[in-house]
Design a protein that fits this description.
Elements: H1 2-43, H2 47-60, H3 64-77, H4 80-93, H5 99-114, E1 116-124, E2 129-133, E3 136-137, E4 146-149, E5 152-160, E6 163-172, E7 177-184, H6 189-196, E8 224-225, H7 252-258
Parallel strand pairs: 1-7, 7-8
Antiparallel strand pairs: 1-4, 2-3, 2-5, 5-6
Helix pairs in contact: 1-2, 2-3, 3-4, 3-5, 4-5
Length: 261
């Protein structure tokens, strides 16, 4: 019986090996096809589609070339913050330098120059409070400090037990700092009971903000203030600064590198 079981296991492992190799090949082929779709979208000036396809491609298969071109497409859509992280990763991984690292360094300087800064201040009671920026949870450590942000309108909300306590919208401008201040009312007896049962985080500490500055989020201040309730203040934004040229798939400078993928 033991010998039969061993034989069955051996055949099963042999059968699984080709399937695994085939799966990796299929994944690489799919990543390459997505890359080609993304570069076709770049050449067609459809940068939203390019970002989608290149992001999917680099998720399937890591490639410095794909990551670099994803950053370029993000720059065209105003996604400067995400682009800086992709470019930094390209530069770190291209230890020997070279054309790709040089191009990434140039684009990184441009992207960093387009960012603004945002400071979110939370007054009142922060017990059980969660802060969201553009629908994403903001770490507690970033309350009260500046963080990098793409230029444009950003929405900040303060929630407790999934209930919005206050919201505000404000414009971040290139090279400027915008502050949003929200007031969170103290939790009700019912909310305190739910928090005690573990339904929401209990946040202690000072109510005037504070925390550790982020390494790659930096955001901008114009001055929107919300006191209690759900109120929104929207400020206009003016984007400025020279735009760096985009390296497209058919450019002589980078074309030979693109062919490596």
């Amino acid at each position: 019986m033991g010998r039969i079981s061993l034989t069955v296991a051996l055949f099963a492992s042999l059968a699984a090996a080709p399937a695994q190799a085939q799966s990796e090949e299929q994944t690489t082929a799919a990543a390459r096809a997505l890359f080609q779709e993304g570069m076709a979208a770049v050449d067609a000036q459809d940068f939203e589609t390019a970002v989608d396809r290149l992001r999917r491609s680099v998720t399937l298969r890591e490639s410095q070339v794909v990551r670099f071109n994803l950053a370029l497409a993000l720059l065209e859509t105003g996604g400067y913050l995400e682009a800086t992280e992709h470019l930094r990763l390209v530069i770190r991984r291209e230890e020997g330098g070279g054309e790709l690292a040089t191009a990434a360094t140039e684009r990184l300087r441009h992207a960093e120059g387009q960012l603004g800064r945002l400071r979110v201040m939370i007054d009142g009671s922060r017990d059980g409070v969660v802060t969201e920026v553009d629908g994403n949870v903001m770490p507690e450590a970033l309350v009260g400090v500046e963080q990098p942000a793409d230029p444009g309108i950003h929405r900040v909300a303060v929630l407790r037990l999934d209930r919005e306590l206050a919201t505000a919208e404000a414009a971040v401008s290139t090279g400027q700092t915008t502050e949003i201040r929200l007031v969170a009312p103290p939790p009700s007896d019912e909310e305190l009971s739910l928090m005690a049962d573990g339904h929401a985080p209990f946040v202690g500490g000072d109510d005037d903000g504070g925390g550790i500055e982020s390494q790659w989020w930096f955001w901008t201040l114009l001055g929107a203030v919300v006191v209690g309730g759900v109120t929104a203040a929207i400020l206009a934004t003016v984007l400025s600064g020279p735009a760096a040229p985009t390296l497209r798939g058919d450019d002589r400078l980078i074309h030979s590198t693109l062919l490596e993928f």
